[in-house]
Amino acid sequence: MQPLVGRSGFIRIEEGKEPGRIYEIHEKLSIGPDRERDIVLEDFDPNQVHATVIHQGNGCYVLEADSRGSNIKVNGQILPPNKSRMPHAYPLQDGDQISFENFHRRGQPIDRLFFAEARDSLRRGQPVYRTVLVFGTR
């Protein structure tokens, strides 16, 4: 991984709520369903996904992912579920795409309609709810 020395990092929302919005990364940027996060994933269960983009200095940025389900992807690759309490760290490069995918809406009752919708989404390999972020530097 080449350090991005002298460049500041940012996250741009590609897909989801507020597409095009840019968040500057100073020391860290938190992502998750809780209201105190910098980027709030509103349709996600609070127990499923939390992530933080951290500037480690010398132009190095990492994604610390704490996913208890397989619903975080970096450049299309599913991050393994985190069985431990320690988050996994993944180095980020300019243009990396981070996606958060969910097959169940937070607070949605689990009923026949949900199961039919989720089953169809799973068959197509498409989540019911999705937020896509792009990491970049300038």
Question: How would you describe what is shown here?
Answer:
With 138 residues, the protein is mainly beta. The protein has one domain: Tumour Suppressor Smad4 (Sandwich). The protein has one helix at 112-124, and strands spanning 9-15, 22-25, 28-32, 39-40, 49-57, 60-67, 72-74, 77-78, 88-91, 97-102, 129-137. Strands 2-1-11-10-7-8 form a six-stranded antiparallel β-sheet, with no helix packed on it. Strands 4-3-5-6-9 form a five-stranded mixed β-sheet, with no helix packed on it. A hairpin with a 2-residue loop joins strand 7 (72-74) and strand 8 (77-78). The longest helix is centred in the last third of the chain and has 13 residues, at 112-124. The model has no long low-confidence stretch (mean pLDDT 78).
What's the tally of helices?
1
Query: What is the CATH C level class, in words?
Result: Mainly Beta
Total number of distinct structural domains:
1
Catalogue the unreliable spans. Answer: none
> How many strands, which pairing sense, and closed or not: the largest β-sheet?
6 strands, antiparallel
DSSP strand content: 35-45%
Mean of residue pLDDT values: 78
**What is the CATH architecture term?**
Sandwich
- Written as H for each helix and E for each strand, in order along the chain, the element string is EEEEEEEEEEHE
Q: Report the count of strand segments.
A: 11
